[in-house]
Amino acid sequence: MSEILSTNPLAIRYLILYEVLLKRSVEEGYQNLCEALGNNQYDYVDYQFWYYRFYHGNVDLEYDRSADPKQLVLFDLPNE
């Protein structure tokens, strides 16, 4: 089953939306998704994006993120 989910981004988004509708925290929802897919098979930053998008009422599951600016994370900062 995890193979089917890991190759279908739309199915994963439905699972994230489901976690939001159940009013689970972002951390608990991510943990549940990791258990369904197998540990850390889905990027936490991507999970947060979809979680908070759905949380704020934007439930377009077909949204294309490719036009969005690249999100920087702590590890992207230069080392000095």
TrEMBL record:
This is Mos1 transposase HTH domain-containing protein. Pfam families: HTH_48 (PF17906). Residues 10-58 form the Mos1 transposase HTH domain. It comes from the Eukaryota. InterPro entries: Mos1_HTH.
